[in-house]
Amino acid sequence: MKKRFLYLLSLFFLQFGFAQNNLLWQGYFSYNSIKDISASPTTIFAASENALFSKNLNSGQLKTTNTIDGLSGQTITSLYYSVVSNKTIVGYENGLMIVINEKDGSMLNVVDVISKQLPSNLKKINHFMEYNGIVYVSCDFGIVQFNLSTMLFGDTYFIGNNGAEESVRQTAVFNGFIYAATANGIRKADITSKNLVDFNQWSQIATGSWSSVETFNTELLAINSSGYIYKFNSSLNSFTGFIQLSQTSSDMRAIANYLIVTTLNSVYIYNNQLALIRQINSAQIPESNINFVCATSIGDVIYIGTKENGIYSTTILTTTTFENTLPSGPSRNNIFSFQTTSNELWAVYGDYAGDYNPYPLDSYGISKYNEKGWLNIPYEKVLGAKSIVRVMINPNNENEVYMGSGYSGLLKVENDIPTVLYNQNNSALEDITFINGYRNDVRINGGAFDKSGNLWVNNTLVVNGLKQLKANGQWQSYSLASIVDKYTNTSFGRLIIDKNSTKWWCSNFEGVLSYNESTNKFKKITFGTDLGNLPSPDVRAIAIDNNNQLWIGTAKGLRVLSNVSSFQSDDQMTTKSIIILEEGVAQELMYEQFITDIAVDGANYKWIGTADSGVFLVSTNGQETKYHFTTTNSPLPSNVINDIDINSATGEVFIATSKGMVSFKGTATKANEDLNSAYVYPNPVRPDYTGTVKIAGLLDKATVKITDIEGNLVYETTSEGGTIEWDTTVFGKNKVASGVYMIFISAQDGIETKVKKVMIIR
């Protein structure tokens, strides 16, 4: 047991160092949905769902921070910049705090709140208030002190009745007292008291539910959960009504000479006399369906955080024009499915439940990424297509893309413009007619192009469940009655096509279904030793590797069909599990794991995504697990993996999770046909570089030998795919010295050779 623990521990540090230092991670996060904002005299800071961005007002420079830089993938709930300490504090829904030193960018994860022996749903951080170097952290259980100088927590205040937990939304200091707006009233205590941990020190001065309390000049103001603003009357030790808002308030803050109150559709700006000097309504912003979250000001410019489109700014007094601040990114973090080519990536956001039910329907639009950045096409422009769940790019024409919808049919996009929505009214696609309430559903969840440019899609919950959109625009339907026992219960998933033009697709009750038009045969692989040997008939992922093996991911594990050509010869195709040795004990690879996707890279390694355990990278035969990436040892923002795809030209592995997409650029490039484009990077290797040297543009099975200038061999390997790595050591031992190193590359047959050089500077 001890040996196993040490092995796992060493693997953890190996993976963490490998991920952080030796390979390139990239984040592709959405910054649209703002959770909180803060400001310095020269910079606006913003927190989106699980990433940050800032804008320097002098230089106009935008800076983003996400899990690649060390943030957590958890949901952010609050943000505060301290002018005094030049530190930014990020608060999370799970109680985590991250303190960023803006001087050098270093981060400190503070887990004291997470570690408290409290129910997990009571640890959310709601607000930060700084007073005399101490930050008072409002949480769903009470208040915690945090010292910005020592970076340590102080006392915790449970201020509910008899010292019970109480959800504190905001705190403020006024005339020597600290006030707390809570879900059950407003409480106050002497800020100088040495015994604020005693709940008896906190007296209740107002009942009901309150969202905010704030000090503004000589006034203390509070807002209740009905959107009524109150002023504190010191002589009566109570609050009196002042202004009724048209909506409940989401944020109130005092900035210099302004009191700013935010509701869903309006921002109210009051002067020192509490006179309303500006009301900004969301309808004034050209983009439709904008909802406000919070607002702050720098000088006479107000910055408004929105749920949908980053930050809008405008001058407080004179203008009605708005400037939008939003880093490039997808429109949402929860990318459900995507497809990438060597030049671009298309992403969609629809989803479905475990039974493939798309309800409640989503209206999110689609996104495209290329070297120019992100293009987000809103729902208003996708011809009414809801719950879009699959992307199919025409390999012969990347400007022609099809999107499968779990409700609306098949959307065609040409030159980035949605042009046609195929459904039951204008194509062979069929809607559901047997389920009451779902009569208009046209569910398309899998599709792929064949070698002739025909698009094949599966049409769920209808008898003619396989459709072909021919290159000439004609449709053809195929009945699945011979292999689907109950089409009214069976939903379909991903679809792929092998080198023999056999179509393979997933289903939730019938396993893997397949069809080949040359023989006009349908077959299936499903649960049961005599029916295909799947561990579950619920298949979620399929992939064909470089050896023509079909890898099948189910809700309860993994199976492999040894050769896809067995479709032609075997009446019943049978899969096998992969048995590995774990400390001498035979075990099944991915046993009982819910597998969500499988992708095969240029080296024939398999990237396996799971529903809750992150990503596994396994060797060509599955016998060796190269890496297991999770939120704890990599920049993955979530262990819930939605989709994986690989740019075969660059080897960049894109991983879409429930909380954002990242990519991992390793050595998994597709092999080249010759050595003419072989190259080395980085070159030269400078002293501050901690990663590996990569030799790319290789033939498969190429021999690579590296020597010093005197001909002493320091490294040798054989490529699998188009790229290899060298850690700049002598066969994994000591680092090589500064100097020029020769790289000799030769094809497997020895006919083609290439010589490269790399300079290393220590």
Automatic annotation (TrEMBL):
PorZ N-terminal beta-propeller domain residues: 44-203
Pfam families with a match to the protein in the record: PorZ_N_b_propeller (PF21544), Reg_prop (PF07494)
The entry's keywords: Signal
Protein origin, superkingdom: Bacteria
The keyword Signal appears for this protein: yes
Coiled coil residues, start to end: none
Signal peptide: 1-19
Name by which UniProt lists this protein: T9SS type A sorting domain-containing protein
Species of origin: Flavobacterium cellulosilyticum
